[in-house]
Amino acid sequence: MVDRGLAVNQRIQALDGLRGISVMCVLLLHVFPVQAFWFWSFVDMFFVLSGYLITTVVLRNYHAGSFGFRTYFARRILRIWPVYYATLAAAVILSLTKNAMSGGPPVEHEWLPSVFFLQNYQGYLGPWDTASAIAPWFRNSWSIAAEEQFYLLWPLALVLIRANPHAIVASMAVLVALGAWMRSQDYLLILLLTRIDGIAMGILLAVISSDRHGWYSRLNRPIVFWLALLTGSAIVAPYLIDGYVLGAIRNYGDIARVGNWTWNVTAFALIFFGLTGLVLLNQIRWLNALLSRRALVYLGTISYAMYMIQGVVRTLTHELFERLPFGGHLTAELATIPIVIGLSALSWRYFEQPINEFKRHFPMKGVVVERSGQR
Questions:
Q1: 222-244 vs 261-280: helix axis angle to the nearest 10?
Q2: How high is the pLDDT of residue 374?
Q3: Helix 196-210 and helix 42-63: axis angle, to 10°?
Q4: DSSP letter at 327?
Q5: What tens digit of pLDDT does each residue of 41-50 get?
Q6: Do 248 and 31 contact (CB within 8 A), yes or no?
Q7: Based on the number of CB atoms within 10 Å of its own CB, is 128 exposed (0-12), middle (13-18) or buried (19 or more)?
Q8: Which among 58, 144, 224, 232 is least buried, having the fewest CB atoms inside 10 angstroms?
């Protein structure tokens, strides 16, 4: 017999567990870039989860006649902006301090676009040196910028198309096709449109889950999610073989030069779409039990701060450890992880949680699935 889903609290824990695994994989990519070369894809896991959760909440409120832009944007601002701007401020201060202490010519970085979540806009205009434009302290923020760009417009689009599921799916198909074309033309992989696949898959999952009596409800079954997972795995198999069997990836710089990037992004989004669907249907009980373990749930709870501050912490630990006799890249990266976790725990307890309490002034129906680490 098919279990049609989890209780709400179980579902929250399982998704938090997915976030916890994803953020740790992102951190481990920098520790072991050769062995974990494909862990870049876990950013797309975040995209799938945000697409699913945010669209589910908006659809529930829209169909209940209770959706309001003021409430939506207030909740979004309270969740995203405090940690984002605190990290940006720290990055600017540390960058200026480093320039002042270096004694050499200052290293110029563009900070103003980051204030408006536009630090990746030049990637649409042609070749662009991201290393000089975005400081290493804040470079990983591109994915937050991409999400903010999308979720600024997405609720308006849903209202304009009256949340019609066929229109939603059709628009996502167009965006995924556009993203694949842009990747084939060598556009950078830090743009909203070149990484739209994960968000689109999350939105499709929200449509399937929310359309309880329509055509898409027929897709809310294990076979569909297993097919998505297996199809995505088949597409990325040559990429994994190149890395693990043929040894094509020997350092961090090789990651972007190996594999068919036109379809790898789509394939990993399919894998995470299938995995998330199976988790929501509670089809792999041992996996749901694992994802609901307290440690993983807590990592998922603090995952947003972990993701945001990793660049600042990583740069500082490299500055320190690479000057020590026992230091080096590996030592600095290994030291980064516990520091990131510790600072993020403090951020959640004393900074994010108190701010999130203001969300009670902006209630939304069905927002129980939006707990903790949701971006």
A1: 140
A2: 53
A3: 40
A4: -
A5: 999 999 999 9
A6: no
A7: middle
A8: 224
